[in-house]
């Protein structure tokens, strides 16, 4: 019985039949008689079927979407950049990192030099006198 059901289903799947026969097979499939065997045969067919999409598959799918009033999803476009554009992007990144490093290094060094110059005593002593709590700068 199991082989008989599988043969019916495989023949139904492989060939195009009239609408009346297709309706009869659909009613037979949803019937409760031998439901487990039909389910098992359908699962075996599903597992052994190789999926091959072609232009007819795409057209059928778009027809189903039209019947269901669903818009077909847009195909996403992958943007390919030439190797020259990748090289330019890497070069810009390297130049910007180098410039940032150079500017930061020079800014920090110049502040450090200014700080050192402000706190080094003159050979003749400080230009101001420190005595007690009051500091005075000579005029």
What report would you give on this structure?
This protein starts with a helix and ends with a strand. The mean pLDDT is 76. The protein is mostly helical and 139 residues long. Helix 1 (2-14) crosses helix 3. Helix content is 64%, strand content 4%. The protein is rod-shaped. It is built from five helices and two strands, in the order H-H-H-H-H-E-E.
Q: What's the quick description here?
A:
The protein has 139 residues and is mainly α.
Mean pLDDT score: 76
Strand count, sense and barrel status of the largest sheet are: 2 strands, antiparallel
Rg from C-alpha positions? 42 Å
Q: Which residue ranges are poorly predicted, with pLDDT under 50 across at least 5 consecutive positions?
A: none
| Order of H and E elements | HHHHHEE
SSE arrangement:
Blueprint: H1 2-14, H2 19-30, H3 35-48, H4 55-67, H5 83-119, E1 129-131, E2 134-136
Antiparallel strand pairs: 1-2
Helix pairs in contact: 1-3
Question: Could you name the key traits of this structure?
Answer:
rod-shaped, mainly alpha, 139 residues, 2 strands, 5 helices, two-stranded antiparallel ribbon
